[in-house]
Design a protein that fits this description.
- The chain is an alpha+beta fold.
- It is built from 5 helices and 26 strands.
- The chain has 3 domains: 100 residues, Beta Complex (RNA Polymerase Alpha Subunit, Chain A, domain 2); 83 residues, Beta Complex (RNA Polymerase Alpha Subunit, Chain A, domain 2), CATH 2.170.120; 95 residues, RNA Polymerase Alpha Subunit, Chain A, domain 2.
- Helices cover 20% and strands 43% of the residues.
- The protein has a 7-stranded mixed sheet with strand order 12-18-16-14-9-13-17. Strands 11, 19, 21, 22, 24 and 25 form a 6-stranded mixed sheet that branches. The chain has a 4-stranded mixed sheet with strand order 4-1-3-7.
- The chain is elongated, with a radius of gyration of 43 Å.
- The protein starts with a helix and ends in an 8-residue tail after the last strand.
Length: 343
């Protein structure tokens, strides 16, 4: 068997010519030319389609005058007008890209009394026509008209109460929060206002406080209630804590007539945690530690000693923590005998 080497060599040269640079340039030119004509055809199709008519749904936004909080509305105000229409493609493209100007409605008044918002079907159709091309054909308008009556809400001034507070870094305390304003005027039906005594603040955006902070916080308004303001300013004073000790006598409560309970010991040491700025305000008359007179002898320890628990019955609100040393005391009950009159 003989191999045709000349034939194999010819095929090899033919393959090299197929993938030569000149051949690749020719193929690239053909592809680019093809894509150009495809793109040109798409442009002609697009231009032709712009002259055709298509159905379209257009949403025209509605803007309203600022409604005072004392004015209530009988029903919901629509946010937009839905217009079903048919128009040429170029106008529909303009609607979808640029949109249309909103329809503005003003709060109508009669002799100083708010009447509400009103727009008849004819007036609404005219407003819609102003925003469309002359070639547009309107199919439907929804809603066909706008008629929302207004009424006067009752008002009431209530205090603002601080709600959930943020946490404070360990070793620091949060002082009294100052709200500005501290009161707010609310508007609602008279029946609803009768049940409201205060308005609470919403949770603060700050999670943990490290220094004194002044921030804004929203108000939590019940459904159907409107306010003269929805946001107030809050001043959150953060202060470092310190410790102090004070010794007090123990007070006995509810001792029956003719008996006296003597606590052992008769005084107690209080370990206080308080803001640094209050350190000089600590006085003995601001605190009280007491025991209750036992009605039954049920306070004996395992070794038979009688003890009573101590209770802090009076302290300033700015004291954060009190530790008693000791927290229980032994006691002795003595009977008081009335003195005999002199003969």
């Amino acid at each position: 068997m003989r191999l045709d080497l000349k034939s194999l060599k010819g095929r090899k040269n033919e393959g090299e010519r197929t993938f030569s640079p000149e051949h690749r340039r020719k193929r690239t030119t053909q592809v680019v030319t093809f894509l150009f004509f495809v793109f040109l055809s798409a442009i002609f199709w697009f231009i032709q389609s712009l002259q055709m008519r298509f159905p379209y749904v257009l949403h025209i936004p509605i803007t309203y005058d600022s409604i005072p909080p004392e004015v209530g509305l009988e029903s919901h105000l629509p946010e937009f007008i839905e217009v079903s229409l048919e128009d040429e493609g170029n106008h529909i493209l303009e609607y979808s890209i640029r949109g249309v100007n909103p329809i503005t409605l003003h709060l109508k008044q009669h002799k100083g009394v708010n009447q509400g918002f009103s727009l008849t079907a004819a007036a609404l159709t005219q407003e819609v026509r102003k925003r469309l091309s002359s070639s547009a054909r309107i199919t439907t308008i929804s809603p066909a008209s706008i008629e929302v009556s207004a009424y006067h809400r009752a008002r009431k001034v209530v205090p603002i109460v601080v709600g959930q507070l943020p946490l404070v870094t360990q070793g620091y305390s949060l002082g009294e929060v100052e709200l500005t304003p501290s009161e707010v005027t609310i508007f609602a039906s008279a029946k609803l206002l009768d049940s409201i005594r205060f308005i609470r603040t919403a949770p603060f955006e700050e999670q943990i406080l490290e220094t004194t902070t002044t921030t804004k916080v929203s108000l939590l308004l019940p459904e159907g209630v409107y306010a003269s303001t929805n946001i107030v300013q809050a001043h959150l004073p953060v202060e470092q804590l310190t410790e102090q000790t004070i010794t007090l006598p123990i007070t006995v409560k509810d001792a029956p007539s003719g008996y006296e309970l003597r606590p052992l010991p008769s005084s107690i040491t209080l370990h206080l945690t308080l803001p640094r700025s209050r350190y000089g305000e600590v006085r003995a008359d601001l605190f009280e530690v007491s025991v209750n007179y036992p009605r039954e002898d049920t306070h004996s320890t395992d070794d038979g000693q009688r003890e009573l628990p101590l209770q802090v019955t009076k302290k300033p609100s700015w004291v954060h923590l009190i530790r008693l040393n000791p927290d229980r005391v032994q006691y002795v009950i003595e009977e008081r005998r009335p003195s005999k009159p002199w003969m």
